[in-house]
User: What shape does this take?
Amino acid sequence: LTTFSAVSVSTSPISVRYSGDHRDFHLRC
Assistant: This one.
């Protein structure tokens, strides 16, 4: 993936935050 500048994508059950080349998956209950 290309380098994104702090892009946060939030889905219905799962919130996905993309910061740089690092991918953080946060589960929202």
